[in-house]
């Protein structure tokens, strides 16, 4: 039993957090976030050159990491820097999906590693909350092509991507988990329309609509109708990464808030001397420690059976959701007015932390999942 | 014990309802329902509409141009306004400054300022908080030193809501450093167009510009703008705090918003079924609804005690705490109900000239922003921690 | 709109609380609670003589009260005194049930008013939690009699009662709410067996088992198969009363705890000077005020439509359950070791307050009910 | 990072499991599972069984008759014992007094008292708390004044767990009133059979007799029963508090109890279906189960840090807080699962000679009593409020 990182991973973590602290200021981050692209191409390249993608990907995907521990190590650092570049989707999840594709498709994944391509994987739709198998986009075979109709909803980082990877139903079956396939097409494919929106936590999200979009047969990734397990694996890996990102954010918020409690004075003393705030801050500290444990647990069981993986992953995402809201809300409250202002760091971390609850399932969704797996 | 409204009160409710049906513009009510900040023109226009009816300051005594409403009438009026998404009457002039002027101002001040409020001649903002003194208001540092017929004011106020529109600000300033901090504070009315005043926007975390910093550098203020006695400002401020509480439970507003939340949750889906049918989400909504139903009675109990005994007592701190917590819970459930689409942030969706895409459901455009913005409700006007201190000391005598 | 009690009710409330404070000490109460009977016959008679039953019952049942406000007024006082006598069941609920019965049956109810009879109404069974229609006891017609088989579970106050009022299924119908009837039999009817247990909050509870018990046809109360509305009304009235009892207990716990916070010193100052305890005590105060509001609301809507009554009643019982647990647990915690001891008043109030959550539905049960009625 | 146990550790786990299967009597394990207090004989008998195996004080160094277990081995042992409902080894001698004697006692004290602990010659209880000093331990008043070769002890201890069985008590006493309160405290071993000692039962709210008051009137204690130096007792007490924490998270116990809760909730019904299928109840159970799974890792993280760096640091206060809260939540859910039958209170259900009725489900006999009794777990051993103070000061440096 050993709870410390290996020295290689510790070095990677330290390198990344140092880089994010020194070179990746919140000011620059927010500037990039409010640009038309929603993030910074320069930062993307810098992150690639730091070896982040190599650490995230397994050797068979061209990296030399990819263990759950690699993923949580990198993403805790990403959270601590409030990094807004599409590392999660373009580097990690897209590569995982493309590894099931043709050589041509895998080549796109190789270009990602070099920092030269940014495909984006779009899966979720419409008003359904978080169920992975709720796919209604249709892709109908028609001679040498598929005709696609449907909408993928609130896709982060789609602006400026090179390729769109997406899921669609290719046949109706009695089992709603079957009949889903994956495709990759260039973003400029005709018939795609995009509606873009500012995102509350920075950057741009897009709705992308397919209106009788005709795509080549070789756009298919892997086997027709049988993509659900590929999708699940990518999203589960993404969920683990998001949990670690949230942890990195929580640790930063803890530091910011502790510093405020020690320096801000009211009624003549630092407000951290008030017992109520001491106990509330202690509660946050305890909950953040429990969150770290939950994520360690999820990474430990990640390569176990599918049920065990899902169970502990849901436990972690539930914990991240519940504690994330608590940390964001309590830290703002303990700051008072200062916590409400744009110019202060805290709010930006808090916004991202809350919105992580809206990706890949919120605390209620995952509590329900956990209950199913542990019944 | 009888919790029903009288016939007169029910008739008044109908009058308000009819009035709102006839006068409230759909675009305004849509903005209110999405939590979008109204423009200066929109707010002033609504104030004028109310003033024509005589309802802009209904709770004022008739001699000052009000209707002499009791707390129950005010409650009914606010509830009906909230129910249909009518704008809130800005509190700074009508609920905050006016009661202080009525109680402590000179005849001349009352005669001059109160009619101007009703006419919309002045836009008042509040100058209380300072960067170094939020909850610890008595530690404020902005100074006013007497020079002939003027005070010379230096210092900084912050968290000045809608100060960017204001031409007048009422301030707590330090006129003496002797004795306890509370004893050297005065209540001053200051023209925002005076030389030496600078207003700087303070963006909130949702990106909105609602609050401001106001800087004072050797600002000359005529001594007739002192309210009451010099160094007695703390008394007036406390009086004001008690008056500010009347509508603070936000029962009507929260009722409407829970209704909208349930509607939203019947449109979004969880695993193929309407979200509102998910037992966990339904339980969250039911809990909030029950808390609110209880608060409605608690609110009326405290208000009717205030009706009987003058101004609401320290118990009214309960209303501030519960009102803000329930409102924040509704904010939270609304963004949850939107699932992945909550991330969308388009606060200008209803602006004239907006030409971006439609958003479905439209709540997604503002829900997350509103959630973050409303974290303020447990902070401003005396944070919920301060309210608990008040209850603990003044009610429980701990 | 008027939130104060009428002067008659205020006098009743003051009379009762004065009596319970001066004549009905906790020491005597606990002595009675641990007796074989589980309560005191003397106290029962004193309570009857104070006019409590008259206040609880409507004129048609022989009283001169019975409004929801009468009921909550009396039961708040009963809670404040931690009264253990069977006022709720024998006086209020039994009388309501018997008012639908024959003249002979009504006579028992009249004897209650005089303090001379104590019938007990037993409805709930076995392991089912709180659903009113979950009746499995069978009562089968056989010539001039009914043959009864089944078990009623954890019935308070059955020891020393004169009659047993009970519900049973008299026919199977497709609607599980139909087919239930009510009966009254003398407690000494042969074929009944009793198992008695100490109750954690004082007194005795009994399981009563019917083994081919042959009872007279005239034991039937009201119409065969159609008792569910009578049962519901009695239990709903009992639920309102229990809520008020809980409120009376909460107010006493509040007083006890406030007194402790003001007098107990640690680190040289009264512990009520510690801000954490101030804020926690304030939270209790706020929640108790909200509970009072919930009960006022429930009594206000009690004579409205069945749906509205049930909705606000469930809101009140949910609130009582949630707040009751909070008040009991927090008050013990704020007392520290003292709160754990038998000799100190607090624990006895706390036990009853918690166990009220186990009668007529706990907070989850009633939250679920409320959600149904407000959907 | 590797969360798995080593092969040696897994083999040790098997040994413990086999041993428990062979030696633990069903009646004892049933009592433990129902939360019933064991008799003196039952506890001593189990201690003897463990002592024969050499596992009564496994974490002691070998030179004192222990096995030199590390924290992971101790964790495994406790987890396996909890899983099958083996009695807890009483902590007073083995986890509390012994570490103090090993660190601060004289050779003579170690040589005399430690073997007697293993043999079961003494039953130790703890004399810390006093009526006026619970969380504020340093304010204790029991005095010990030196007279020749004795201390004369006067005062009162309270909350003395199982003191009714004890023949020895280790006490914190006041030997000097100079300096800070902490500086005049000494650590004394006192024979309970001395003249002037009176033990009075203190019933807890569930009616049980587990704790006691101990009164000292001119009790003569030989000076060789002083541990370490006079007036240094506070240091030893703090050392002891840190050592007391090792098993305090109660992970193994709570795991077993959640399993039993789920079993119970599959037998009781809500609206005709097993309660465990009710989404709200299932969510409550799942939340607790997740908190516990997280605590299991937090516990191991803190313990393995302790393994590396000596005694567990102030972070171990986390374990006390979470361990008690999770345990209390299980207590609460267990009584909820029993619905109306939770009110039944028959703590002597498993006593030899009990001739009352059977109870179904049997958990009903004790669930409410256990719920109320276990409110103590967030109070004793330094209340959770004190633990939060410790974290706040020692970890967060507030």
Short description:
The complex is a heterotetramer, with 2 copies of chain A (375 residues) and 2 copies of chain B (398 residues). Chain A is an alpha+beta fold and 375 residues long.
Please, could you describe this protein's structure?
The complex is a heterotetramer, with two copies of chain A (375 residues) and two copies of chain B (398 residues). By secondary structure, chain A is an alpha+beta fold. Chain A contains twelve helices and ten strands. In chain A, the strands form three sheets. Chain A has a four-stranded mixed β-sheet with strand order 1-4-5-8. In chain A, strands 2-3-7-6 form a four-stranded antiparallel β-sheet, with no helix packed on it. Chain A has a two-stranded antiparallel sheet with strand order 9-10. In chain A, a hairpin with a 5-residue loop joins strand 6 and strand 7. In chain A, helix 6 (87-98) packs antiparallel against helix 8, helix 8 runs antiparallel to helix 9 (275-300) and helix 9 packs antiparallel against helix 10. The longest helix of chain A is centred in the middle third of the chain and has 36 residues, at 228-263. Chain B has three domains: 7-89, Acyl-CoA dehydrogenase/oxidase, N-terminal domain (Butyryl-Coa Dehydrogenase, subunit A, domain 1), CATH 1.10.540.10; 124-236, Butyryl-CoA Dehydrogenase, subunit A, domain 2 (Beta Barrel); 248-395, Butyryl-CoA Dehydrogenase, subunit A, domain 3, CATH 1.20.140.10. Chain B starts with 6 loop residues before the first helix and ends with a helix. The relative contact order of chain B is 0.10. The interface between A and B is large, with 50 and 57 residues.
């Amino acid at each position: 039993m050993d709870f410390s990182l290996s020295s290689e991973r510790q070095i990677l973590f330290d390198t990344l957090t140092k880089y994010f602290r020194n070179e990746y200021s919140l000011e620059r981050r927010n500037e990039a976030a409010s640009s038309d692209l929603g993030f910074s191409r320069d930062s993307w390249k810098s992150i690639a050159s730091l070896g982040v993608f190599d650490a995230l990907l397994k050797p068979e995907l061209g990296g030399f990491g990819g263990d759950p521990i690699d993923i949580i190590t990198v993403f805790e650092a990403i959270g601590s820097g409030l990094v807004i570049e599409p590392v999660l989707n373009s580097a990690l999840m897209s590569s995982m999906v493309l590894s099931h594709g043709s050589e041509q498709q895998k080549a796109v994944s190789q270009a990602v590693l070099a920092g030269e391509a940014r495909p984006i994987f779009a899966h979720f739709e419409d008003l359904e909350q978080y169920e992975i198998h709720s796919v209604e986009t249709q892709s109908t075979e028609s001679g040498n092509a598929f005709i696609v109709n449907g909408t993928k909803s609130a896709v982060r980082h789609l602006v400026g991507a090179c390729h769109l990877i997406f899921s669609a139903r290719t046949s109706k079956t009695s089992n709603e988990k079957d009949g889903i396939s994956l495709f990759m097409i260039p973003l400029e494919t005709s018939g795609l329309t995009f509606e873009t929106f500012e995102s509350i936590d920075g950057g741009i999200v897009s709705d992308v609509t397919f209106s009788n979009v005709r795509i080549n047969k070789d756009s298919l990734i892997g086997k027709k109708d049988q993509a659900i397990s590929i999708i699940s694996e990518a999203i589960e890996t993404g969920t683990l990464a998001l949990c670690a990102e949230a942890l990195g954010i929580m640790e930063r918020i803890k530091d910011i808030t502790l510093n405020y409690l020690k320096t801000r004075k009211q009624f003549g003393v630092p407000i951290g001397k008030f017992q109520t705030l001491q106990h509330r801050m202690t509660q946050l500290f305890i909950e953040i420690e429990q969150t770290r444990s939950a994520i360690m647990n999820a990474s430990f069981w990640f390569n176990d059976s599918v049920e065990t993986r899902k169970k502990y992953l849901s436990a972690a995402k539930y914990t991240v959701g519940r504690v994330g809201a608590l940390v964001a809300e309590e830290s703002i409250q303990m700051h008072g007015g200062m916590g409400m202002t744009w110019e202060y760091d805290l709010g930006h971390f808090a916004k991202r932390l809350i919105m992580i609850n809206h990706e890949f399932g919120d605390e209620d969704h995952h509590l329900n999942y956990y209950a199913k797996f542990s019944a | 014990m009888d919790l029903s409204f009288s016939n007169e009160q029910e008739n008044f409710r109908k009058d308000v309802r009819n009035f709102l049906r006839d006068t409230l513009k759909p675009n305004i009510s849509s903005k209110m329902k999405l939590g979008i900040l109204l423009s200066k023109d929109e707010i002033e226009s609504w104030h004028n509409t109310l003033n024509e009816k005589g309802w802009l300051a209904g709770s004022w005594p008739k001699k000052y141009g009000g209707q002499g409403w009791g707390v129950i009438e005010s409650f009914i009026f606010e509830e009906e306004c909230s129910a249909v998404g009518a704008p809130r009457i800005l509190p700074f002039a009508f609920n905050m400054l006016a009661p202080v002027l009525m109680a402590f101002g000179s005849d001349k001040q009352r005669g001059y300022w109160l009619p101007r409020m009703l006419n919309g001649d002045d836009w008042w903002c509040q100058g209380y908080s300072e960067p170094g003194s939020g909850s610890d208001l008595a530690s404020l540092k902005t100074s006013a030193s007497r020079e002939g017929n003027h005070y010379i004011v230096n210092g900084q106020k912050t968290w000045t809501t809608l100060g960017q529109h204001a031409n007048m600000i009422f301030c707590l300033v330090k006129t003496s450093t002797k004795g306890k901090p509370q004893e050297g504070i005065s209540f001053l009315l200051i023209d925002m167009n005076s030389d030496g005043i600078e207003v700087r926007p303070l963006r909130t975390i949702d990106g909105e510009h609602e609050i401001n910093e106001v800087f004072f550098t050797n600002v000359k203020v005529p001594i007739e703008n002192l309210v009451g006695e010099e160094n007695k400002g703390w008394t007036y401020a406390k009086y004001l705090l008690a008056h500010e509480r009347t509508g603070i439970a936000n029962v009507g507003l929260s009722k409407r918003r829970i209704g909208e939340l349930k509607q939203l949750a019947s449109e979004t889906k969880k695993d193929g079924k309407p979200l509102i049918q998910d037992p966990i989400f339904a339980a969250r909504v039911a809990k909030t609804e029950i808390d609110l139903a209880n608060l409605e009675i608690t609110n009326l109990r405290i208000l009717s005690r205030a009706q009987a005994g003058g101004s609401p007592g320290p118990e009214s701190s309960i209303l501030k705490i519960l009102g803000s917590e329930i409102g924040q819970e509704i904010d939270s459930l609304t963004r949850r109900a939107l699932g992945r689409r909550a991330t969308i942030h388009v606060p200008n969706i209803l602006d004239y000239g907006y030409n971006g895409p439609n958003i479905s459901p439209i709540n997604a455009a503002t829900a997350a922003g509103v959630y973050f913005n409303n974290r303020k409700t447990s902070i401003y006007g005396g944070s919920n921690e301060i309210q608990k201190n008040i209850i603990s000391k003044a009610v429980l005598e701990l």
